[in-house]
Backbone:
């Protein structure tokens, strides 16, 4: 059998190399491009209800200072998570100390500060509730067809739960997809403290007309109290919510295409360029923030058509969030604009047509034109031929910027980066070869047999005790003479019906859900305690296939 140790080690080495390269690229990006954002998962809560403050930053090695929050909020335990390619996400759960219009103050995060955020806090709910109940909140009761609608299901419970299952069936005529992780918090209702688990879904109606979202259901067990076992109290809990009935509106005639029903759409430049030089690339980054959109909708930022310049488009970066019970999509696309000559340069502003789902009318989100004065090319720099200036079509993926168009600072940075990455790759390659050579000098593992080596019965018993069923099957394949190709061949070549049935029972228990895997393993150990018994094996005392080299000694 092939030893999988080396391929796994090569994969780990490759992953470590990729991780080191990504970390190096992230450090070289520096604080110059750092950006810090903050937002609340909802802008309106009730007194005693939990709200989550999220902070995302590109700055390495920093953490927010939460001390200013203590004045108006009870501050929970902070948490953090890494976001792929977008820095670090920090979060903290807050409980307002009073009702009214509150402000989440600006917080210091490294060298930057977050903007202050407004929060409206209503009075405490007074309706009486039981130990456990469900509530469903739908963002829009009359959505448009193919509009992304946020659906939130909250399970409230006033007693600790030992176990439970929350189910939400999808409606007919619409897709219902769970998004994100469950959110937790607490709320005071009718003078009683409840904890809650909030599960979020994305509902997309596929046809117009009436639509009913089935009621959610919960069934679980509460943690036992002191006298529950003594009196035999059943702590099973069950709850059902209310179905939600929606009326889906059809796409109106003459609506802009592609059909993009949203609550709001805003475009903005991210650090717009203020200077340009002929033959040198300048970066243009555009951000679109769509309220009520998901990543499945066709929100595309077109490539600007710039006269007198080449435009190279990168792939768009998308971020999905759930804010105020509504999906929110942020799209960032970057363009490299290379002026072909000195003089004035006008970059037309982007325009995106969309349908205002709230007002029921077509709208267009636009950006203003950018007017730049392009300086003459640096001495000795060759400009690209104007005849080759072909703008990138909409939807085109990332294009490589020609080396002659990169500025001197960018070229030097990339040369240093290539040198460092090359040295890192050589060092990692040498380390991997050293590990492989050291592994080859080690004795073979007693469990995994190498090519041409027949495993022993002791190794098979050890595999049945501590290894997986697949490992035991691989050992049986190697113990057969000649080696068996798969499990079916092993079963067919065994002479003992008890051993054949033990293998089939374990297969059914693991892969067909028929039987108990623990019991099947016990039967398998007992059947193969003395090793496999193969059909056609030579019986003890049978004549050998070849005569002995020396004849047996005869008694005198």
Residues:
């Amino acid at each position: 059998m092939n030893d999988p140790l080396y391929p796994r080690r090569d994969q780990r080495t490759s992953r470590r190399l990729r991780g080191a390269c990504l970390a190096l690229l992230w450090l070289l990006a520096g604080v110059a491009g750092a950006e810090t954002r903050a937002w609340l998962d909802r802008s309106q809560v009730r007194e005693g209800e939990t709200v989550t403050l999220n902070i995302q930053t590109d700055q390495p090695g920093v953490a927010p200072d939460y001390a200013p929050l203590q004045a108006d909020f009870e501050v929970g335990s902070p948490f953090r998570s890494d976001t792929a390619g977008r820095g670090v996400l920090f979060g903290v759960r807050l409980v307002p100390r009073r009702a009214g219009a509150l402000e989440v103050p600006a917080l210091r995060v490294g060298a930057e500060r977050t903007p202050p955020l407004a929060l409206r806090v209503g009075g405490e709910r007074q309706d009486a509730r039981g130990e456990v109940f469900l509530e469903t909140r739908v963002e829009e009761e009359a959505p448009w067809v193919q509009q992304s609608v946020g659906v939130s299901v909250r399970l409230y419970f006033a007693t600790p739960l030992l176990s439970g299952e929350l189910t939400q069936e999808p409606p007919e005529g619409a897709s219902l997809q769970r998004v994100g992780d469950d959110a937790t918090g607490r709320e005071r209702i009718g003078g009683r403290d409840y904890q809650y688990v909030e599960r979020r879904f994305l509902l997309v109606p596929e046809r117009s007309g009436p639509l009913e979202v089935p009621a959610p259901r919960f069934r679980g067990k509460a943690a036992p109290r002191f006298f529950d076992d003594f009196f035999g109290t059943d702590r099973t809990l069950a709850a059902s919510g209310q179905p939600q009935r929606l009326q889906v509106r059809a796409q109106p005639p003459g609506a802009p295409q592609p059909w993009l029903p949203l609550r709001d759409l805003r475009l903005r430049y991210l650090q717009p360029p203020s200077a340009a030089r002929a033959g040198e690339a300048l970066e243009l980054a555009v951000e679109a923030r769509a309220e009520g959109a998901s990543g499945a909708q066709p929100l595309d930022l077109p490539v600007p058509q710039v006269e007198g310049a080449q435009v190279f488009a990168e792939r768009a970066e998308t971020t999905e969030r759930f804010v105020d019970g509504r999906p929110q999509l942020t799209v960032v696309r970057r363009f490299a604009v290379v002026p072909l000559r000195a003089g004035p340069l006008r970059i037309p502003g982007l325009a995106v047509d969309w349908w205002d789902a709230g007002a029921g009318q077509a709208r267009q989100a636009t950006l203003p034109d950018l007017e730049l004065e392009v300086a003459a090319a640096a001495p000795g720099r060759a400009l690209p031929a104007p005849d080759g200036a072909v703008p990138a079509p909409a939807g085109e993926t990332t294009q490589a910027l020609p080396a002659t168009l990169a500025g001197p600072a960018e070229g030097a940075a990339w040369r240093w980066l290539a040198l460092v990455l090359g040295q890192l790759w050589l060092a990692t390659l040498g380390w991997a070869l050293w590990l492989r050579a050291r592994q080859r000098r080690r004795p073979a593992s007693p469990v995994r047999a190498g090519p041409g080596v027949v495993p022993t019965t002791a190794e098979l018993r050890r595999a049945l005790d501590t290894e997986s069923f697949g490992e035991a099957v691989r050992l049986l394949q190697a113990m057969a003479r000649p080696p068996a190709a798969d499990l079916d061949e092993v079963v067919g070549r065994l002479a003992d019906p008890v051993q054949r049935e033990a293998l089939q029972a374990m297969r059914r228990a693991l892969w067909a859900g028929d039987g108990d895997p623990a019991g099947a393993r016990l039967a398998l150990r007992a059947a193969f305690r003395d090793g496999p018994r193969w059909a056609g094996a030579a019986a003890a005392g049978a004549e050998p296939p070849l005569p002995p080299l020396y004849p047996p000694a005869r008694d005198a």
The mean pLDDT is 77. The first strand starts at residue 36 and ends at 40.
